[in-house]
Amino acid sequence: MAGALQTAPLPAQAATEDMAEDIRTAFPQLEIHEWLGAGGMGRVFKARQPTLDRWVALKLLSPEQARDPEWTERFTREARALARLNHPHIVQVHDFGSANLGAQEQPYLMMEYVDGVNLRQALQNGGLTAQEALSIVPKLCDALQYAHEHDVLHRDIKPENILIDTEGRVKIADFGLAKLRDEIQPDFTLTQSGAKLGTLAYMAPEQVERPQDVDHRADIYSLGVVFYEMLTGELPLGRFPNPSECNGTDPRLDAVVLRTLEKQREKRFQNAAEMKSGLENARTAPMPVGPTPSWNELNYEYRSESGIGSWPWLHIVFGKDPLTGKMKRARGIVAIGVHATGVLALGVISFGLISWGVFSVGLLASGVLAAGIGSLGVLSLGLVGSYGVFAVAPVALGVTPIGYLSAGVTAIGRDVASTTGTVEPQAAAWGDYWMPILGRIHTYWNAVGLTTIMLAGTWAAWRSRKPRSHIALFFVLSLLGPFNLLLSRATLTAPRFGEQLRREENTRRQEKRRAEWASLDKLRKLSQSWVTEACRTDSPSARGKALLAIQEALASSQMDLVRAGLLSIPKISQTSADKKTFRELARAHLNFADVDISNLAISAVVSMEPESTDVDRILAMVDNAKESQLIPMAHALGTLSHRDFTGRYADPMLSLLERGMVIAKAKTRGDSYAFDERMLLGPLWGARISPEIEAKILEWSHLDELDDGTMTTAGVGYNVFYHALSTQANKSEATVRRLLQLAQNPDITNIAGRSLWGLRGTIQPAQHSLVAEAVIRLLENRSTAYLWEQGLELLSTCARAQHTDALQALIDREALPEDYRTRLKSILQTARQRS
């Protein structure tokens, strides 16, 4: 008996006389001739059975193993498996039982003696030819088919367990790991504990990963490994080549060998008879001309084991169906292949809820030719919307869109926004909002789709054992996705129809404003002539006539004369004109329907020493003020309050500011005729303000900030800072800290310098120490002359005794200009005298 138990010759002295005597005593019916060897499951002896005149192999468990129930169970399992089987290519069992050896019961197995070598020894002694391998494998297929039909799984097929006698007969031996499928009890301890039974290099993937879920197809895989090793002399590990690529083996055998080695057992031969049939068919098939099919085309499939219904979560497939000759179709929740159908489908031709491909159809389809409810593509057709070079849909966006509502370079439709023609407001709004979004989605999705399918192709080429040049080509193609993404991000610019509309609107406003100024020019000249005469001191009669003309104009029904009269009142407020009369005439126009006249009336009333009732009427108008009245109202409140917004004028001013800032934040940059927040903030220049107004100003000063917290000079936040925050008279500590923060801005003059300028003369003594410390830190890191000038002015007021060391450090700097050093020394002397 050879096999796994005869791994190497053992010295004769190892079988002691005591052992031999014990065996002869236990087996009087046998003539023990020699010790064949020892293996994982005991010792094997060659013996002769005189009564039947035959040679047998006597297999005994070692004393240590005989005391272990697990090994006893395995030994019994082998006996039961062999007892079921009676096949010319399976070692036959003659007897099984236990014998008393050395005062211990030891199981034994008496079986057929095979006079020869095992397949491992044959491979080591020069190997086998392809013809010899082809004569052995069909016999092994027959033996396994017979065993499987009798519900016996071997689970340890390997060269050591395949015996070849001197006449070339083949036998499968060592069923110690066999599994009887009709056994009620589960496998013994090793299997129960999840251990892997078998020899790793020859074990099927499921035998390694799920040892309790093994069926007869694991033996098919193991036989495939043995077959591959017989043909190539190597094990199929890692990314292994086809057998024909190793030593010129018949390429017709490649498909058979590779099918037995499929990782997923559903793709292998489903039984040993099918493998034998496939082998016979391959031997009789015509020789292929040129490369083998597996060399010419991809042949790879992956299907996840779990999913929803009959659809797996992921299905990747490349190659043709051998039965139909058509390309295989990927079907799954996520499907990737040449033909793909799924919830998410990526392929050359794809169908899915979300699909990408050269030709794609879906709820959301993207690709070269795309059709769906919504579509993104070079040529796109959408039932609702589409985006592409040529797009057709009710709502179409792109280079040449056709739709009910379309926006693009050359747009065709009912409501259109075209960079080369008409721009309708609704289409412009859709185009400005959606084209950048859809452009990015299209760009990113194309990159993801192309990269994913090409990486899947790279993997398929690798698993299909394609040449490295093919694998490299697929990988290089997969890089087109990121390259396309970078290129598109660098070149993609969406039309800005809104800007075009705004330019047109700006032009219309400009023309309207010019017309208004032209019409007002005569009124200004008329008003100026009245004012000039009203201010004359050398001619009382001329002065009287001018004032009478203004009064008549204010009482006129002609609006142009009313405007001219209202324009004149503020200019004659410093003359000896009767303020009461002119105030009453102006008051009559406060609530005039024409907003321009109402604004002129507000300025006129305020300039003529308004009474308390006038103030009340103006304050009552704040809540209902129109956009064009906000700025005149704010300036009127500034005059009435004498720039003190801490009392009754605080809330009305805050209301005007809040409404105005909403408009300012919404306006478009660069629109010279839009609302100007600088004019609204003008009354706050140098004013005292309430804590509520200050809190809002602090909040608004953060508008348009960059990500790093710095401020730019083009924005609403900058205007708030420049015209209100830095100029207010009664700065709180929060405002001081905000200005000190802005002093760190990279913009030295307009922001950093303005922040220090705004602190001069407007901070309280309690804030001096805070300001001094911040300014010293700033000067330590800045050398700009403007900042130093402003900083030294602040230090001359704020520095205290506790700052002397820091001031001395500034003085000791070698690169410090002498005039700065001199001024710092003076500041240092003053600071020492302050507590």
From TrEMBL:
<feature type="transmembrane region" description="Helical">
    <location>
        <begin position="443"/>
        <end position="462"/>
    </location>
</feature>
<keyword id="KW-0472">Membrane</keyword>
<dbReference type="InterPro" id="IPR008271">
    <property type="entry name" value="Ser/Thr_kinase_AS"/>
</dbReference>
<dbReference type="GO" id="GO:0004674">
    <property type="term" value="F:protein serine/threonine kinase activity"/>
</dbReference>
<protein>
    <submittedName>
        <fullName>Serine/threonine protein kinase</fullName>
    </submittedName>
</protein>
<dbReference type="GO" id="GO:0005524">
    <property type="term" value="F:ATP binding"/>
</dbReference>
<dbReference type="InterPro" id="IPR017441">
    <property type="entry name" value="Protein_kinase_ATP_BS"/>
</dbReference>
<dbReference type="InterPro" id="IPR000719">
    <property type="entry name" value="Prot_kinase_dom"/>
</dbReference>
<feature type="binding site">
    <location>
        <position position="59"/>
    </location>
    <ligand>
        <name>ATP</name>
    </ligand>
</feature>
<keyword id="KW-0808">Transferase</keyword>
<keyword id="KW-1133">Transmembrane helix</keyword>
<feature type="transmembrane region" description="Helical">
    <location>
        <begin position="469"/>
        <end position="487"/>
    </location>
</feature>
<keyword id="KW-0723">Serine/threonine-protein kinase</keyword>
<keyword id="KW-0812">Transmembrane</keyword>
<keyword id="KW-0418">Kinase</keyword>
<dbReference type="Pfam" id="PF00069">
    <property type="entry name" value="Pkinase"/>
</dbReference>
<feature type="transmembrane region" description="Helical">
    <location>
        <begin position="391"/>
        <end position="412"/>
    </location>
</feature>
<keyword id="KW-0547">Nucleotide-binding</keyword>
<keyword id="KW-0067">ATP-binding</keyword>
<feature type="transmembrane region" description="Helical">
    <location>
        <begin position="362"/>
        <end position="384"/>
    </location>
</feature>
<feature type="domain" description="Protein kinase">
    <location>
        <begin position="30"/>
        <end position="314"/>
    </location>
</feature>
<feature type="transmembrane region" description="Helical">
    <location>
        <begin position="333"/>
        <end position="356"/>
    </location>
</feature>
<dbReference type="InterPro" id="IPR011009">
    <property type="entry name" value="Kinase-like_dom_sf"/>
</dbReference>
